[in-house]
């Protein structure tokens, strides 16, 4: 999954980005409201972490612009302000959740997981497809209870497909959600990761839908 962090404090931005990358996400960063708005308006993100106190354009204005442009990605607002009215303003502007500074990084990670799974219509961090089980909190995959060792890129591909289980996901969509803005994107690499996943999982849950993309479905439902 691909995230955007919009935070002008460079140390905090780096800490958030590092923690999210360690948790398995692909992360883009912005340090002011204008840059953040542009990225959120032009790139597909699975969730955004947005500070309210931004230079150039404040976080509330950025969020309002996104929502007016029908950008519906989940947004977690960060604020150093204690007044309840600021939190209400963020929610009214279109935020899905908020965290007040200072915060524990684990809380941010948990809230991001919740936003992503709710956006995809899932209630928990556990995703099952036949004998395949993916634990999004622990970033672990098992097949019939046996741990499967995956590279970070293989895990991201499987996690995105499992999150959207039953839906056809195009190569383009996978590429856009698995690599940051600076990555030299080549959809052919997706085919390589899919091939590796099939070999490692040793169970037929990833279906190729000719001309459209891929779909995760239980073995009895896969073509």
UniProtKB/TrEMBL annotation:
Entries under InterPro entries matching the protein: CheY-like_superfamily, OmpR/PhoB-type_DNA-bd, Sig_transdc_resp-reg_C-effctor, Sig_transdc_resp-reg_receiver, WalR-like, WH-like_DNA-bd_sf
DNA-binding recorded as keyword: yes
Domain called OmpR/PhoB-type: residue spans: 124-218
GO BP field: regulation of DNA-templated transcription
Ranges of the DNA-binding region feature: 124-218
UniProt xrefs under SUPFAM superfamilies: C-terminal effector domain of the bipartite response regulators (SSF46894), CheY-like (SSF52172)
GO molecular function, one term: phosphorelay response regulator activity
Residues annotated as domain Response regulatory: 2-116
Keywords from the named record: DNA-binding, Phosphoprotein, Transcription, Transcription regulation, Two-component regulatory system
PANTHER family in alphabetical order: REGULATOR OF RPOS (PTHR48111), RESPONSE REGULATOR PROTEIN CARR (PTHR48111:SF37)
Protein name: Response regulator transcription factor
Organism: Acuticoccus mangrovi
Lineage summary: Bacteria, Pseudomonadati, Pseudomonadota, Alphaproteobacteria, Hyphomicrobiales
């Amino acid at each position: 999954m691909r995230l955007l962090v919009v935070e002008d404090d460079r140390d905090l931005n780096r800490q958030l980005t590092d923690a999210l990358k360690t948790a398995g996400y692909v992360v883009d960063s912005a340090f002011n409201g204008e840059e953040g708005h542009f990225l959120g308006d032009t790139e597909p993100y699975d969730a955004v972490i947005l500070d309210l106190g931004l230079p150039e354009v404040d976080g509330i204005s950025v969020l309002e612009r996104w929502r007016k442009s029908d950008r519906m990605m989940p947004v977690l607002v960060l604020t150093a302000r204690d007044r309840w009215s600021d939190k209400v303003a963020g929610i009214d502007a279109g935020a899905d959740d908020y965290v007040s500074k200072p915060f524990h990084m684990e809380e941010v990670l948990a809230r991001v997981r919740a936003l992503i799974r709710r956006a995809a219509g899932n209630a928990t961090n556990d995703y099952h497809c036949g004998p395949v089980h993916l634990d999004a909190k622990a970033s672990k995959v098992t097949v019939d209870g046996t741990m499967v060792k995956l590279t970070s890129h293989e895990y991201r591909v499987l996690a995105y497909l499992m999150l959207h289980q039953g839906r056809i996901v195009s190569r383009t969509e996978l590429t856009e959600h698995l690599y940051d803005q600076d990555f030299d994107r080549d959809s052919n690499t997706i085919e390589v990761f899919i091939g590796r996943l099939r070999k490692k999982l040793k169970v037929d849950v990833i279906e190729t839908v000719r001309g459209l993309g891929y779909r995760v479905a239980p073995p009895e439902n896969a073509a």
